[in-house]
Fold:
Amino acid sequence: MEALTIREAAQTTGWSARMLRYIERSGLVAPARSSAGYRLYGPAELQRLRTLKELLGRYEIGLSDVAFAARMATSAELRDDVAGWLAEKPSRPEHVSAQDWLRFEQDKHEKLLAAA
Amino acid sequence: MEALTIREAAQTTGWSARMLRYIERSGLVAPARSSAGYRLYGPAELQRLRTLKELLGRYEIGLSDVAFAARMATSAELRDDVAGWLAEKPSRPEHVSAQDWLRFEQDKHEKLLAAA
DNA sequence: CCAACATTACCACGAGAGTGTCAAGGTTGG
DNA sequence: CCAACCTTGACACTCTCGTGGTAATGTTGG
Structure:
């Protein structure tokens, strides 16, 4: 038997057992079940859980973000509508691409402090 | 001058002035500014705000979801890593929890297409 | 000049995400 | 048989999201 129980899977992936259940509930990694209902994590699930952890940490994103990406990946309609909205060029306003507004806010704050 | 102030923009788009500032802060719709710092909403921004409202309502998604999509659209690295994770085959697609907001049955064929 | 607008900076508050812990009960292996 | 595991469900806490206010202050137009 190569499938791990939730406790073993938790230890080898770095997630807590609680989070493994939460991740399953959000539709991201759903392990098989034994006849009695026990979760059985195979090599594929374990790998997926490790790379998920890596992904979230590297980009500072959340499970809900990945869940949304999954939803876009499975619904062409959603994906196309979102892509369509993003493609609407904001004629005038340059940039502000989600990573920049932080710096924007910070600069403003510094300016206010300097003026005081 | 055809640009509207935040109050006028709020009335014609259905958002509140408060939300227009919030939307700007999340990097989705950033209007131009007057020399005194007043937000100036032009036709492009107004249209964008209306379609944004439509988009959120139609799919029951949030501003943060669209903001994340925007982040993926501007970062090839993020986009590829997320897509790569989603492409890792989930050994058995089953057990998606009772209160599931996805309509898997409807999207099944699209998932097959995306995997091709 | 001044009423009506704008700006930012706060306080607040319900809802959801992300976690832990505990309870009550079923399953497993030695 | 029984200790150690598993299950679901619930209480709770911290953060962020999505909103609404209010206050203090600057700007605009008639």
User: Anything to note?
Assistant: Residues 91-116 of chain B have pLDDT under 50 and may be disordered. Helices of chain B lie at 6-13, 17-25, 43-59, 63-74, 76-87, 104-115.
